[in-house]
Amino acid sequence: MKTIEVPIEGKNREWSEAILLREIRAWHRQGRPLYSHYMRQHFQELLAAGIRYFGSWGKAVEAAGLSYAEVRRYQRWSKKSIVERIRLLHAQGADLSFRALMLSPYAPMVYAAIRPVYFGSWRNALLAAGLAPADIYRYRSWKEADILREIRRLHAEGEDLSSKYMDERANSLIATARRRFGSWGAAVERAGLDYAKIRKRKRWTEAEILDQIRALGEQGVSLTSTEVRNREPSLFAAACKRRFFGSWRQAVESAIGKVGKQAGTQGRGQVEAV
User: Fold this and answer.
1) What is the rounded distance in angstroms from the CA atom of residue 222 to the CA atom of residue 230?
2) What residues does each domain of the chain span?
């Protein structure tokens, strides 16, 4: 069979159809893009050999048993489809670091994302998908012990650790935990927490917190932080979150203050009991 000598990094390499097709398949197995523009930049010699033997690069790829239509799919990416795929991969617990994806079958998406007509950089693509690039790289290198420690810390601070809430926040911790432990629930259990209870945990709104504080006051329950922390831990944790009131005292004062305008000194007495 006729061979072609093609210079590669200063050396001559003899190509044959068998070598060419084997090289294309190996390139594909490594998860590298095979579309012509990428090959022209990264392996021009292979591209030239493919065209020489088969008349076009697309035919060479097809001869290697691959679908060139699938290889060229990067051309069909849009900002919307890139963002949707990033979110889907995140929900599946995929490693969304640039390096990891460039070595995966999703490299064409990354190349499309960093083009100036789309996002210009992978960081901007992550931001567009609602993810925090710092978290992507922060948690990626964490060991199991680090993940479990972080889960315990969040729980101690009263954070909602249900998978639904963590996914909604696009928290990369949950993606990393899924890779390390198989599922978010398994990671939470390994941290020594009861995930069944966490899944049933009530999700509070500011209005519900205020209503519950007033209801406890009307029932004659002491509204001290110690009493409520033991009696209503979910309420206490939610009220102390920064996005609500930041502290139990502020939550009680907000609730009783509004009641106090309607019920006179009753509200003020409850504030003093905190």
Assistant:
1) 11
2) 4-72, 77-136, 142-199, 206-272
Tell me: pLDDT of 238 over 50: yes
- pLDDT (average), residues 190-214: 83
**Residue 130: Cβ within 10 Å count:** 13
**What is the separation, in whole angstroms, between the first and last Cα of the chain?**
90
Residue type at position 167: D
Closest listed residue to residue 232, CA positions, set 216, 220, 249, 247: 216
Burial of 171 per CB tally in 10 Å (0-12, 13-18, 19+): buried
Q: What confidence tier does 83 reach under pLDDT thresholds 50, 70, 90?
A: very high
pTM over 0.85: no
Identify the CA nearest to 259 among candidates 200, 220, 194, 211: 211
- Cα dihedral sign, 213-216-217-221: negative
